[in-house]
Amino acid sequence: MNDHDGRPGGSGQHAATPDEVADLVHAAARIRESVETVIEGKSEVVRVALVVLLAEGHLLIEDVPGVGKTMLAKTLARSLDCSVRRIQFTPDLLPGDVTGVSVFNQESRDFEFRPGAVFANIVLGDEINRASPKTQSALLECMEERQVTVDATTYELASPFMVMATQNPVEMEGTYPLPEAQRDRFMARVSMGYPDPRAEIDMLAEHAAANPLDHITPVADAALVSRLVEVVRTIHVADSVRQYAVDIANATRTHSDVRLGASPRATLHLVRAAKASAALDDRDHVLPDDLQALAPSVLSHRLILTADAQIAGRTTESVVSDILGRVAVPAHARV
């Protein structure tokens, strides 16, 4: 099985060594500690963000206003010494503002390309569902192929490259639902949720007097993140674990409550995320537990329920949970 962009999924290249995995664990711990100095009481959300970064994916952060969606994205970006650009998605934002445009230069008598906001290592897309679907679609090529094509010329994007987008629930005023193709390109979706009372009291004490981002200093750079990504690619995935991932995806496609199930891209994202999760747990191989832990974040936002299931109050998260309870777990997953 090939990984993203045709790269081997573990069998065609050297396996991750214990030292490489240990270095990844230490580097990731520094990034996580840096983020958690600002984002308190949300360790699982921070972990998913790290998993997506190391698995070369993109993260969708969905919740009501004011719970720290943008702060999470900005804190992770600030913890990395790499290029960062922010896009504030509004109804009048144009696709060219995102990808870039060709402008005629009077002096050279020729067109020159002016890069848009996606030309950075980390792109913060704030309130992505407040822009029109046409503008949202400007991200499709860069998120999947890590390139931008403008006027028949293709431009490669930086490496590593990650889109962290925030969105408000679709029932809120002034929002457009993300197209299915757009949602499918996000490796995972997380919800911040309200903080517990203790964390909220700490936030009032520490954040009311100053901007917490002022105290964040980079603990890793783009080169280090790229090396960590290379380690994640070499994490071993047994054939039985791959089969388990396919079985989970197939179950979403045949479930009676689901109108649109998980795509093959979703299966690939689930395995890649599981490899990153295994590395963070100081393992050189993926376990079925990794797939089970990440399936709600990786699959739920891609599923579309039937009208009857929606009327009955079912959620995509409950459907994924039901599927995980039904699909047989492989007994031997190491070889």
What does this structure look like?
This protein is of the alpha/beta class and 335 residues long. It folds into 2 domains: 1-16 and 236-335, Helicase, Ruva Protein, domain 3; 18-233, 3-Layer(aba) Sandwich (Rossmann fold), CATH 3.40.50. 43% of the residues lie in helices and 16% in strands. The protein contains 14 helices and 13 strands. It has helices at 18-36, 43-54, 69-78, 95-99, 133-136, 140-145, 180-184, 197-207, 222-233, 239-254, 264-280, 288-299, 307-311, 316-326, and strands spanning 59-62, 80-81, 84-88, 100-105, 110-115, 122-126, 147-150, 153-156, 162-167, 188-190, 220-221, 258-260, 304-305. The strands form 5 sheets. Strands 3-6-9-1-10 form a 5-stranded parallel sheet. A two-stranded parallel ribbon has the order 2-11. Strands 4-5 form a two-stranded antiparallel sheet. A hairpin with a 2-residue loop joins strand 7 and strand 8 (153-156). Helix 12 (288-299) runs antiparallel to helix 14 (316-326). It is globular, with a radius of gyration of 20 Å. The two termini are 15 Å apart. Residues 1-12 have low confidence and may be disordered.
Helix tally equals 14
* Total domain modules: 2
Strand order of the largest sheet: 3-6-9-1-10
> What's the SSE pattern?
HHEHEEHEEEHHEEEHEHEHHEHHEHH
Q: Average the pLDDT over all residues and give the rounded result.
A: 87
Distance between the termini: 15 Å
Give me the secondary-structure topology.
Elements: H1 18-36, H2 43-54, E1 59-62, H3 69-78, E2 80-81, E3 84-88, H4 95-99, E4 100-105, E5 110-115, E6 122-126, H5 133-136, H6 140-145, E7 147-150, E8 153-156, E9 162-167, H7 180-184, E10 188-190, H8 197-207, E11 220-221, H9 222-233, H10 239-254, E12 258-260, H11 264-280, H12 288-299, E13 304-305, H13 307-311, H14 316-326
Parallel strand pairs: 1-9, 1-10, 2-11, 3-6, 6-9
Antiparallel strand pairs: 4-5, 7-8, 12-13
Helix pairs in contact: 1-2, 1-9, 2-11, 9-11, 10-11, 11-12, 12-14
